[in-house]
């Protein structure tokens, strides 16, 4: 991996570690060879292995089977992440032997902010605010739940992890809301560590999609973090976002493959 690729992946790991600390809903476990998360929540990345460094003394197929059994015995599937620029055929074979199947891919994207300037035009009626007040938190909660179409049984847990927990530490995590003509329509959250800022929880109400709101909001917040001394912005994009973020200047640096069993 290049230095940029490592920073993109590490921001994702550290963001989830921070979420685990703030929400206390899931647990980050780090050993000399693994970084993983475990919880009682039936949600993929809350029960997952983010990094795994195999040992020549231990059969990876057996060790993977043991880790998988730990999660299965708790009643949960296990997600296992690998990256496109750190492939290990021994690990890939162990995944296949243990009946892991690829269920998704995330694009790790980066943008150097050292000389970056937005070339996007302003959107009339659009206002972007850093979330501070109780009413803004409530609006953020409503928009993100609707934007991600979170089912009602998961709404409280989802908000505890991605909304209320992060709001306790605005030194590293900051929520933003975009308003169109006074209506809250898009959410965005930044996680900043050192001079790297990760952009997460970008969700737009369905009725306001395809208007350029998310990318214009993103450009606005990029300027904010740039002014604070951030040199690298990173995004972990779903297939839907891969076509949006390059319009602001992001470039795909690696793929994060998600396997499940």
TrEMBL record:
This chain's source organism reads: Paenibacillus violae
Protein name per Swiss-Prot or TrEMBL = GNAT family N-acetyltransferase
Q: Which SUPFAM superfamilies match?
A: Acyl-CoA N-acyltransferases (Nat)
The N-acetyltransferase domain is annotated at 126-261
Q: Organism's domain of life?
A: Bacteria
- Which InterPro entries does the record match to this protein? Acyl_CoA_acyltransferase (IPR016181), GNAT_dom (IPR000182)
